[in-house]
Amino acid sequence: MIVNGFVFKNPLNTKGFLSFGSLLFLLFFTSLTYSQTAEAEKNFTICKACHTIGGGKLVGPDLKGVTERRDEAWLIKFIQNSQEVINSGDPIAIQVFEENNKVPMPPNPQLSDEQVKELLLYIKNGGKLPDGVVSKEAITAASTEDDLEHSAEVEEAFTEMKYDDARHLQTTFIVMIVLIVISLFDLLVTKIVQQKWIHIVIILISLIIGGEVVFVSATNLGRQQFYQPEQPIWFSHKIHAGQNQIDCQYCHFTADKSLHAGIPPTQVCLNCHNQVKTGKITGEVEIAKIFEAVNSNQPIEWIKVHNLPDHVYFNHAQHVAIGKVDCEECHGQVEKMDEIIQVEDLSMGWCIKCHRTREINIENKFYDQYTALHEKLSSGDLKRATVVDIGGEGCQKCHY
Ligand code: HEC
Ligand code: HEC
Ligand code: HEC
Ligand code: HEC
Ligand code: HEC
Ligand code: HEC
Question: 86 C-alpha vs ligand 5 centroid, how far in Å?
Fold first, then answer.
C-alpha cells in the first residue's frame, strides 16, 4: 500500500484481541503531559544531533559564543545554506569548513530569517528558553527509566490477559456447540429425557451465549491493540525522539497539514546519517541499511502499525493542528519506545469517548460558523462545548 507517497506493507491481521485494558493503559500512558514548547527549542532539535551549546564539539563545532564570534547576517546565511556561503568564497566559512574536516552542514531552507534569529537568541541564552516557558527536556528528564520498565511489565501482563480471555471465549463457544448437539441428539434419537422443554431451554440458552461470543469476537476482529511488528531497520524512537529530542514533526512533517502523519522519506534520515554512521547499540549494521536503500533506489518498506478499517475517515491535521491533541494521547509515550507498539485499540468507542468529553476552544475562528452553539454558550444554556457539539458523533463524519 502506498500512503502519502511512502510504501507501507499492510500486515495480515493476526491478533484479534478483546479490548478492556485500554482504560488502564490510557491512564498509565497519559500520566505525563507536555506543555507547549517554544519554537526555537523545537527548531534547535534539528541542530542537536550535531551541535552542543557549551558541551564541546560533536559533528559540528560547539555553538557557545558563536553569536559573539560571527555577525548575525553571516550566521543567518550560513545556517540557511552553509554550502552556498562556502562556495561564494567567504573566507570565514571556508576556514570553519576546513577546521571541521570538510563535513558539510545540511541546509535549512525551511527556517525563515526570523526563525534563525530566534534560534540565535536561544543559543546566546545558553540553550535556555525565556522565563515562563517549560522545557520539554526538563519534563522528560523528570520521568525515570523505572517508568519504562514498569510499563513493559504492565504491558506484558495485559497481553497475557488478552490471550487468556480469547481462549475462554473459544472454550465457551465449544461447550455451547456440544450442549446443542447433545440436546438435539437426545431430542430426536435417544429420547432419554422425556420433557421436551428442557431440550429447548438448553438449546436457546446455548444459542444466545454462543451468538454473543461470535458477536464479541467479530467486532474485535481486525483490531490489533498491542501490535508491534518488527521493522526492516531497527529504528528507535527512544534514541531519536527521546535521547536526541528530535521533534516528532521534523520527521512526521505532514501531521499538522494532511490526513496522514506520514513516514519520513529516506532523504530525511540522510540529513543526519550522512554524518552519523555508527550507533551506540547497533554499530554500523542498521545505519548501513539506510545507504543500501538509497543506493538501490528502493524505499524502505516500513510496516504500518496503526491501521483503521477502510470505511473510517481519520484526519491527523484536524486533531493535531485544530484540536491540539498531543500525539501521546493517541500513540502513548513514543519517545520511550525502542520499537513502536499500538497502545490504543482504535475502536469506535475509543474515538467517541474522547469526543464526548473533550472540550473545544470555541474562540478558535475555525468554529465561527457554529453560530447557534455560540449563542447557547453566551446565554449560559451550555456551559462548555465538546467535540460532540460540533458534530463529533455524526456517523458520516467518521465513515465514508
Ligand atoms: C548533520 C550535522 C549538522 C547539523 C544537523 C547542523 N549542523 Fe551546524 N555545523 C555542522 C558542521 C559540520 C559545521 C562546520 C561547518 C561546515 O563544515 O560547513 C557546522 C557549523 C555551524 C555554524 C558555524 C559555527 C562557527 O563556528 O562559525 C553554525 C552557526 C551552525 N553550524 C549552526 C547550526 C544550526 C543553528 C543548526 C540547526 C538549525 C545546525 N547548525 C545543524 C554540522 C551540522
Ligand atoms: C528521526 C525521525 C523520526 C522522529 C523524530 C519521530 N519518528 Fe515516528 N516514525 C519514524 C519512522 C522511520 C517510522 C516507521 C518505523 C516505525 O514504525 O518505527 C515511524 C513510525 C511512527 C509511528 C507508527 C506509525 C505506524 O506505522 O502506524 C508513530 C505512531 C510515530 N512514529 C509517532 C511519532 C511520535 C509521536 C514522535 C515524537 C515523539 C515521532 N514519531 C518521532 C521516524 C521518526
Ligand atoms: C486523535 C488521535 C491521534 C493523534 C492526536 C495523532 N494520531 Fe497518529 N494516528 C492515529 C490513528 C487513528 C492512526 C491510524 C490511521 C489510519 O490507519 O488511517 C494514526 C497513524 C499514524 C501514523 C502512521 C502513518 C499515517 O499517517 O497513517 C503516524 C506516523 C502517526 N500516526 C504519527 C503521529 C504523530 C507524529 C502525531 C502528533 C503530531 C500523531 N500521530 C497524532 C491517531 C492519532
Ligand atoms: C536529526 C538527526 C537524525 C535524523 C533525521 C535521523 N537520525 Fe538516526 N540517529 C541520529 C543520532 C544522533 C543517532 C545516535 C547515534 C548514537 O549515539 O547511537 C542516531 C542513531 C540511529 C541508528 C542507530 C541506533 C543505535 O544506537 O544503534 C539508526 C539505525 C538510525 N539512527 C536510523 C535512522 C533512520 C532510519 C532515520 C530516518 C527515518 C534516521 N535515523 C534519522 C540522528 C538522526
Ligand atoms: C484524545 C481525543 C480524541 C480522540 C481519541 C479522537 N478524536 Fe477526533 N477529535 C478530537 C478533537 C479535539 C476534535 C476537534 C477538532 C476540530 O474541531 O476539528 C476532533 C474532531 C474530529 C472530527 C471532526 C468532527 C467535526 O464535527 O468536525 C472527526 C471526523 C474525528 N475527530 C474523527 C475521529 C476518529 C475517527 C477517531 C478515532 C479513530 C478520533 N477522532 C479520535 C479529539 C479526539
Ligand atoms: C468519532 C468517529 C466515529 C463516529 C462518529 C462513528 N463511528 Fe463507526 N466506527 C469508527 C471507527 C474508528 C470504527 C472501527 C472500529 C474497529 O475497527 O473496531 C467504526 C466501526 C463501525 C462499524 C463496524 C463495526 C465495528 O464495530 O467495527 C459500524 C457498523 C459503524 N462504525 C457504524 C457507525 C454508525 C451507524 C455511526 C453513527 C451513529 C458511527 N459508526 C459513528 C468511528 C466512528
Answer: 48
